[in-house]
Amino acid sequence: MPPPSSSLDPLRAHTTIVADTGDFNVLSLYRSQDATTNSSHILAASQRPEYAHLLHAAVAHARADTTSSDPAAQVDAALLHLLVSFGCEILRHVPGRVSTEVDPSLSFDAAATVAYARRIVAAYGARGVGRERVLVKIPATWEGFLAVEALEREGIRCNVTLLFGLRPQAMRAAEELKGEEVEMRPVLVREKVAKQDASVKVKSYADDEAAFRTDLFNDHAAHDKMTDMLRQFLRDGAATKAALKELLQSS
């Protein structure tokens, strides 16, 4: 018997359903095509008893595979393993792709974001997951866009997130779009960009960091919402690292 009709069914006919969660049960319930997580979802899920084994597996991996005895390096290795573990579990429930977020503490460091993204893709590859099923989730900061540009050239597909303003974030993202290679969240912003009248002159931010930062600062909705959410991701990311550190220090 088919599942009962819901308000999602009419939407499913016109768009792609993407679950923004770390709860695997939700994925099956709503039959989403893709799924995405963030630091807050990972923290919440890792505190649930049914996912405790993923934390312990991440700690065991860090102890076994990290060549450095530096505690920070071990926490970093454990966190990456945990992120990819959640992603692999998610891919068992969705037919499409999973978005895995770069450590939010790197949001203002383009080179570090690129390096972390490569590690994410490599970690999935080591588990037999091809890059075509993985999106690297990167905040819509100036440095984030620089990282996206570099990663797309390498064939690493990205999901630009924390994007809440048509100017300048969406316009900057549109300059990075190559067909369907770059995803934008929320997706409605991307649709708004796609519908821009071609005859209207649009300001370019590609080579103007000062203009990007100034216009973003003056866009209260985009700036304030992105800042609030990024602060939350930083707090929750730090809490997850603290939990992993505690497990690593226990015998």
UniProtKB/TrEMBL annotation:
Q: Which InterPro entries match?
A: Aldolase_TIM (IPR013785), TAL/FSA (IPR001585)
What is a single molecular function from GO for this protein?
transaldolase activity
Q: Matching Pfam families, A to Z?
A: TAL_FSA
Q: What is this protein called?
A: Putative transaldolase
- List the transmembrane segments: none
Q: Which domain of life is it from?
A: Eukaryota
Tell me, which GO biological process terms does this entry list?
carbohydrate metabolic process; pentose-phosphate shunt, non-oxidative branch
- Taxonomic lineage: Eukaryota, Fungi, Dikarya, Ascomycota, Pezizomycotina
Which keywords does this Swiss-Prot/TrEMBL entry list? Schiff base
